[in-house]
Amino acid sequence: MKKSNFLSECREIVYKNIEIFQAIENYDKTNKLSKAFYRERINLTIDGTILKKFKKYCQEHGYNMSRLIEKYIKEELKLK
Asked: What's the pLDDT tens digit per position in 4-37?
């Protein structure tokens, strides 16, 4: 692998994972490891019937409701 390809691949990895590298950089400065990813609580208003069906579906299939909603949001936004 050429040096320029290696460097460009390294830069791309850092760019795609900037939060992790910032957490590592912060650890170097403070000797405390902070979370790289935070989860936040939100309030939504949706149809009660849909919510009941979704809760039942998640319970029957062993899904975590928050994780499944997060997955659908990522798909909608075309994120990894």
From this structure: 788 889 889 888 888 788 888 888 888 877 765 6
Please answer whether residues 19 and 37 qualify as being in contact, where contact means their C-beta atoms are separated by less than 8 angstroms: yes
Same domain, 34 and 2: yes
Q: If you ran DSSP here, which 8-state letter would residue 35 be given?
A: P
Identify the DSSP state of 31: S
Q: Compute how many other C-beta atoms are within 10 angstroms of the C-beta atom of residue 23.
A: 15
Q: Examine the domain organization and report whether 55 and 73 are in the same domain.
A: yes
Pair 23, 35: CB distance under 8 Å: yes
Distance of alpha carbon 16 from its chain centroid, rounded? 12
Burial 46-65 (b: 16+ CB within 10 A, else e): eeeeeeeebeeebeeeeeee
Give the amino acid at 13. Answer: I
Residue-number span of the structural domain to which 58 is assigned: 41-80
